[in-house]
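Researcher: Please translate sequence to structure tokens.
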Amino acid sequence: AAILEDIVEADPDNLYAYHLLGRALTSRGDKWRAIELFSTVLEKWPSDPEARHQRGLIYIDVEKYDEALPDLVEYLKSDPEDSEVLFDIGYVYNGREEFETAIPYLTRYIELKPDDFEGWSQRGYAYSQLWMHVEAIADCSKAIELNSEDALSYGNRANAFYRSGEADKAFADYQTTID
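Model: Translation complete:
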């Protein structure tokens, strides 16, 4: 990172060096400094989608969902089919307990990446929190089909089973999460 800092200092208009430095800071765990750096980038280049994307991801990592959301939504305007950002926005809305808002983003993500268990699991979680048990069970079951090792999907499906009055199935899924 020190070499990149020197490059940024010597050539403060080198956007690529800023991006590399931000990623280096993030990878070594200096997330708050990376956020500051990407904020500086956005002051200099307000329409830079990559800085918005990277800062949004770091905000998710430090569980600052309210700060992450504007960056990710703005980035999505530059690439509306970016499946990872669709997932991230759905994840953020789940983190903010805005489950109805999360579902369309996660649905679009699933349309683009139907074989990724995490999209199914996150949408199943949102459905479960909305007491939409049939949908939650279906999505969590699909996530489990795609990745039978995902304890979170078993737990979410167990909650949906329990809330829908299927205690035996709930117990079996809870047991799977323990085993």
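Researcher: Any highlights?
Model: DSSP finds eleven helices and no strands in the chain.
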